[in-house]
Amino acid sequence: MGSIFNAQQIVNGLQVGSIYALIALGYTMVYGIVRLINFAHGDFYMIGAYAAYGAFFLFNSFFGGKSGVLAFAVLIASMLAGGGIALLANRFAYKPLRYKPKLSSLITAIGVSMFLEYFFSALPMIGPSYRSFPDIIPKVQINLGIAVISNYVIIDIAVAAVLMVGLTILVRYSALGKAMRAVSQDKDAARLMGIDVEKVIGFTFLIGGAFAGVAGLLAGMTYPRIFPYMGIQPGLKAFIAAVLGGIGSIPGAVLGAYIMGLAETFASAYNSLIGEGIAFAILIVVLLVRPTGLLGEKTADKI
Amino acid sequence: MPAQLSIQGMTHYFGGLRAVSNFSFEVPQGTIYGLIGPNGSGKTTTFNLITGIYKPTEGKILFEGKDITGEKPFRIVRGGIARTFQNLRIFSNLTAIDNIRIARHYTTKSGLASSILRLPSFKAEERAVKAESRELLELMHLGPRANELAKNLPYGELRRLEIARALATKPKLILLDEPAAGMNPKEVEELMSLISRIRDDFHVTIFLIEHHMQVVMGICERIKVIDFGETIAEGLPEAVAKDPKVLEAYLGKRGA
Amino acid sequence: MPTTKLPKLPKLLIAAALLYTVIELLNTFGVINGYILHIINQSLIYVILASSLNLINGITGQFSLGHMGFAAVGAYMSGSLTTLIFKLAPHAAGGMPLFVLSVLAGGVAAACIGFLIGFPSLRLKGDYLAIVTLGFGEIIRTVFNNIDAVGGPRGLLGIPKYSNFTVIFIAAFLTIVVIRNLLESSHGRAMLSIRENELAAELVGIDTTHYKVLAFSIGAFFAGIAGALFAHLLQLAHPTQFGFVKSVEVLIMIYAGGVGSLTGSIIAAFGLTFLSEGLRLGIGTLADVTGWPIGGEWRMVIYSLLLIFVMLFRTEGLMGTKESKLVTIGEAD
Fold first, then answer.
1. pTM
2. What residues of B are in contact with residue A292 (Cβ under 8 Å)?
3. B15: left (phi over 0), alpha (psi -120 to 50) or beta
4. What is the pLDDT of residues B195-204, one digit of tens each?
5. A4 φ, ψ to 5°?
6. Subunits touching A (CB < 8 Å, at least 3 pairs)?
7. pLDDT in tens, C236-270
8. R_g of chain C, CA atoms, integer Å
9. d(C-alpha B240, C-alpha B245), whole Å
10. Is B33 within 8 Å of B221 (Cβ atoms)?
11. Neighbours of C (≥3 Cβ pairs closer than 8 A)?
12. Nearest C-alpha of chain A: how many angstroms from C68?
């Protein structure tokens, strides 16, 4: 058996890690700002994929042939869908419970997740079965000598990178970013400074959902099957990645996601059972050894 | 009088913040000992350290000669130290009498089997615990409230309930964290006589944190003043009240 | 003040005996057929699942999302045991006592797993505990999915059908009595205090770790019993019966019924099991009648909406934390 740590696997790991990163960011941002584990986040990813699918067929007749514009339109569609659903979930399911015990919100999030999955599965035009995803951009194989990759690998990693850089700039340098950081630290203080806390929370959901939507699009392209329950596994793994990196920390989510992607790829190459379980194994180890994650901060509770 | 509680060189850091600095003092058995200081001076932290919620970064805590530093809270409580909390920690959805009965739990001997099978020994123990708890409630003038849900009780009664609950653990030392907070002058008077009565009738040492100067001067037999985690003064109330450092700590910062 | 009321256990016993007799009679005279009886059996098993989860979540306040993992352990352990004994000695006399032992073995196995999982996990709070229990539940399911000796992804088949209404009813009754007796004792109050204010509980001398692990283990035990009974009712144990969604279904029951209320769990277990079947039938009929492609997934859509509505509009569920006088003793004076 050759080494599993070869360039091909590394590339694969980075590719899947990029998708996880986009999803993980949404989890971590929402947790950071409202301390909620949004169980439904993986389903925003699923909705993004379906929106992209629908947009492709819708716009194909308009733009048909012009790959670039079509791709861009599909991208926007996935972001709008993911972000839009996130906003709706926040507005109708999470906001009413904002100041009630945390557990109510958690359970509601579970309910929202189940609802989205089963609803999409129940809709006759969508249905529970797999659907293959069209090639929005023609697939091209590139031979790098040490590995053979498709251009999708580059697209996945590049799109994720661009979005992550964009987010970093937003959080570090914009007024909204500052407001997001303020609300994460102390909601009441932020409110007293004149920040519209609910609006900032809404934006956070929007951005997180939009990123998840894009991840759905990328995943649809890369593993070209979509189905209503496609968000469960990646959502869980991305969540674990966020916990690994330190839930609430944006760099942590990215770090955790790439570690998760690589770990999963290597583990699967070695043995498929271990590959299946590695995510949970990581979760258990992190929670029992260092619950705040790699880059997370220990918050002291005042007693 | 022998020292019941002995703190030796206790220092505690929260990350980089020094909350308590090189405390050494003794609380003699049977006294009413007061700990005062401006907000954030480390008073509640001291209580948390004594009761094992935190383990001090340095130093030792000895209770009746035994080293209890870093012990788990429930063991410290079983060893004879009870406390109340600054922001009440009552079992809100349980009745007043249940709040008390829970504090008697560790003294019970009925195992799971005898509880589930409702053996006579279990029933006898339950009756005894109920009777003792009721007695304690009566003492605190909470008798009629026994079967009320705690969350329906007014603030003053909740404070008394928490003290009753602390007493139910059969302590030798009680830590009272701002027992007079939020009370009107009449309630404060009643509290002061209650605390004295508890000390006398239950033979417990009282160690209290307070901001109400009336209480501090009225019933404390010795006082320790701290600020920024350091001791500023210690001794008899009259002497401490005149200590210039104390005045500066309070008036200079317009604290308390 | 002396009371002339009957001690409450006989009251519950009488009510239960009455219910049992009524159902048996209805069954004997054909008023309710095998299908309805089957749903009643399932409801009773859910009573065991819901009340045991309530012990962990509602009474001790520890949020566990992997409850069906314990049921899986019970189902597979017990199912394998009876299948093995059946294979080795197919005409072994005394099938029922063996069955009872087998079910108990399932419960004990589940309790051991509960203890092993609970011990390290229960240091965590709230969200983190939820996630780690979810993770463990999934790990258990994945493990069974991958053990070929118990059927792997095909499941454990051919389990002899030992579960019947009588056995299940008695099991459910005993579960309620045990949990109720536990609840109304010093131990039960200790658990409640952890839910109410864990720090204060610690500070009145309660060993909170001990009680959290105890509640977890006892809850796991009964879940294992439920799983074992289920396996011998459906004659199979399959990984898909014990996944996260199934754990959530039990969660919906305790929240709809009232977290912390045993009575609520009983009502909700029956109510939701019947509702589920009703929805299945109703949706099927609707689809047949109208010819529209209405799939079975709509049942779960309604279920999840139910959960959301309970959370948004009546978080305390049907009973809140209150109990019916029939089920619990309460204060006699």
1. 0.89
2. none
3. left
4. 999 999 999 9
5. -85, -15
6. B, C
7. 999 999 988 899 999 989 988 888 889 999 999 99
8. 20
9. 9
10. yes
11. A, B
12. 16
